[in-house]
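FORM 7B: Structural annotation worksheet

SECTION A. Query
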Amino acid sequence: MSKSVPNMTRRADIDWIRVAAFGLLILYHVGLYYAPWDWHVHSARSFEWLRYGALITNPWRLTLLFLVSGVALRFMSRRLSPLQVIRARAARLIPPFLFGVLVLVPPQSWIEAMDKFGWRQDFFAWWLAEFSPQGFADGIPLNHLWFVLYIGVYSLAAALLLVHPAVLRFAQKVFEVVLGGPRLLILPVAYLAFSRQSLFATYGLSNHLTTDWYNHAISFGVFLLGFTLALSDRTWADFERLRWPALITAALALPLLIALEANPGGMAFDGLVQNSMFALDQWATICAVLGFASRHIRNADGPLLRYLTDAVFPCYLAHQTILVVAAHLAAPLALPVNVEAPLLATTTLGGSLLVYELVRRIGPIRPLWGLKRLPRAPAKAAQTVEAAAAARPAKAA
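SECTION B. Predicted structure
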């Protein structure tokens, strides 16, 4: 019989995973600057080996983030009504999304337009063109903010399940049984492989909400899975028991996936084999990460984690703009790659943390960066209490 965890309000392992995933994201985006495929900006020097190096994190990094986002939403919603959950998500996501679209993404788009399409006017002219009627008709770039949009839409859909808690409890019990034991490692691989085989060739990864059906099948699927099973002791125990088999499976799947990527068409049903290996590496790695994290850092809370957890969202909002601007400014210097790449990574991480340090101290702009408003100053609160006490009529002796 499965049990929920009635007194747990948060899990440190989930927060550590989100922090680590952001660190990987910075390295990944720096790598995209030198990768042998197109990105928003691109170095004059590209490296073919990055096509295979990217496979170390490509299959599972975003899928893991969507899964733990679903887990975090379920924990957040335990003491809130569905309407309160929607309001909390809207307050957390809508202001940063709009601010990002209007302020953070345009510098990236301007630099990309200059590098790729020969735009020669200043940033202000680009901004006016971007948000003109014709610009809206052509589509407003979201760049890395697509993730914020998807999390908002997925959260709204998950909140609808909270309207019927009995349905959610039933779904949790069904998933606990269907995915119990080794099936937790096997069945999601089958789902991920089927989704990739049937949808990826047609839709790819567009990051456009209305056409991104493969991405939705994967990302929304694991988001709901995390949301449904977040409170299941039985499922977390299974993740822990499967952590070593999952790690061994992932370690075997990755070199096979790289070999298939390097030698396409080498066997019959090559696409099916490669998609299946992609899914195997994808879910086995996620199982291993969740299992080891639950086993060893589930309660590893502390000031550092709380600081980094608070910083992740503002840093995510800022990092890609900082990277694109830094790469654009560094390009004319023609630095050696072994100097330029660490410089870009350090500048992006350091700049993102500097942005966080600045915005967290400025109360009015905190919501624009996904931070809660600062609490009322204690002195002001004390003055309010004193004023209220003075206004009450004194009791007769």
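SECTION C. Observations
Confidence is low (pLDDT under 50) at residues 1-7, 393-397. The chain is about 70% helix and 0% strand.

SECTION D. Sign-off
Analyst initials: ____
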